[in-house]
Amino acid sequence: GSALTATETYVGLTGNDFVVGSVVVPTIATVSPPVGGLVGGNTVTITGTGFTGATGVTFGGVPVTSFIIVNDTTITAVVPASVTAGPVTVAVIGGGGTASQGHAYTH
């Protein structure tokens, strides 16, 4: 499937001026490789949209060891360890919201 890009529009006040803008909600298209061991430590590439300004990445709700925003469509992340084998949800937290994809990675 292909990833969809969602945009939220907002209107606000700054002093005496109206501000109209938009915030891009991130999306996740792929996680590669999609499988790794329980000890974590391997690097994966997450592709999607709206990654610029991301503030966090989680695997099964656990923050990654580290991540690098390569560009707006690519993040590399070091997978955290897990105590449970099986598929987990991968999430990218951004300024416009959180993108998550269930069963995107299997420990």
Task: Write down the secondary-structure element order.
Answer: EEEEEEEEEE
SSE class:
mainly beta
What is the straight-line distance between the termini? 23 Å
Low-pLDDT runs of 5+ residues are 1-5
Assign a percent range to the helix content.
Answer: under 10%
Our estimate of the beta-strand percent is: over 45%
Biggest β-sheet strands, sense, barrel = 4 strands, antiparallel
Strand order in the largest sheet: 3-4-8-7
Number of helices: 0
- From the spread of the alpha carbons, the general shape counts as elongated
Mean pLDDT: 86
Task: Describe this protein's structure.
The N terminus is likely disordered. A hairpin with a 2-residue loop joins strand 5 and strand 6. The relative contact order is 0.26. 0% of the residues lie in helices and 62% in strands. The radius of gyration is 16 Å and the shape is elongated. Strands 3-4-8-7 form a four-stranded antiparallel beta sheet, with no helix packed on it. The chain has a four-stranded antiparallel beta sheet with strand order 6-5-9-10, with no helix packed on it. It has no helices and ten strands.
Structure summary:
Helix content is 0%, strand content 62%. The chain contains no helices and ten strands. The two termini are 23 Å apart.
Features:
107 residues; mainly beta; 10 strands; disordered N terminus; four-stranded antiparallel sheet
Secondary structure elements and pairings:
Blueprint: E1 6-14, E2 17-25, E3 27-32, E4 43-49, E5 56-59, E6 62-63, E7 66-71, E8 74-78, E9 87-94, E10 97-106
